[in-house]
# Entry
Amino acid sequence: MSEGEKKAVPLAVEAVEASLANAPLGHRIIYLPVVTSTMDIARQEAEQGGEEGIVVVAEEQTAGRGRLGRRWVSSPGQNLYFSILLYPSRWVYSRLSVAVPVAVARAIRHTCGLYPEIKWPNDVRLGGKKVCGILIETALQDAEVRYAIAGIGINVGSNPEEHPDVTAPTTSLAAELGKPVSREDLLQAVLTELSVIYMHMRGWGDAWGEWQTLLETLGREIQVRWGEQVEEGVAEAVDGEGNLLLRRPDGTLVTLAAGEVTLQI
Ligand code: BTN
# Structure
């Protein structure tokens, strides 16, 4: 029996939504049987001022899209296709393509007992075959991120042999396990895992921003000594690891690792 002929059981999103009522992501789930792409609906929500953590889930996508302009085959009833609306800082945004596949890998481990790996940048694979694709789209205004949408497609129950047109090696969780997998459990697990990682990142982002605000050193003329060596210039910025970027009088920039220097302001 082909996928199209199998009797599709609709996703029971109410229970998932109820279990995530107090979670940052998934407290509101918009469920639609057919869409062009869940990315489009999430984008509409964002443009109407929708709150962070709204999730759009569909049974089927008629124009599912992947990275690099590829299409994402989205046949009905067997898999998970969903998008999450986020309002991240630039710092958090730049780490979403790390956070999302890790959340998916953890969710698969916990719900299925399978141990996925990540193919750079963010394909989640089992035994070298793709089981999940992730697409992160963003709306920018000047240097700021207005919103980001994390789109996740997981092959839960599909039979990879029914899509010979998809040339890259793919598999599904059910095919690997040899038994059905609950789409509801998996959706809940992904949203829970991503909520935890996302809140940690936001917390770190807050601390990072505050640290830079409090750094009295930035913008000042300073002298830095370590051992016999001395550098003078303007403390221009700090990089992601907390190293100090010093602009020398000749205009060149030098990176000074924290812990090696003493400042004489
Ligand atoms: C890729 O591997 O190229 C990324 C695939 C992302 C597919 C998901 S399915 C849910 C969301 N809606 C889409 O149209 N794409 C993403």
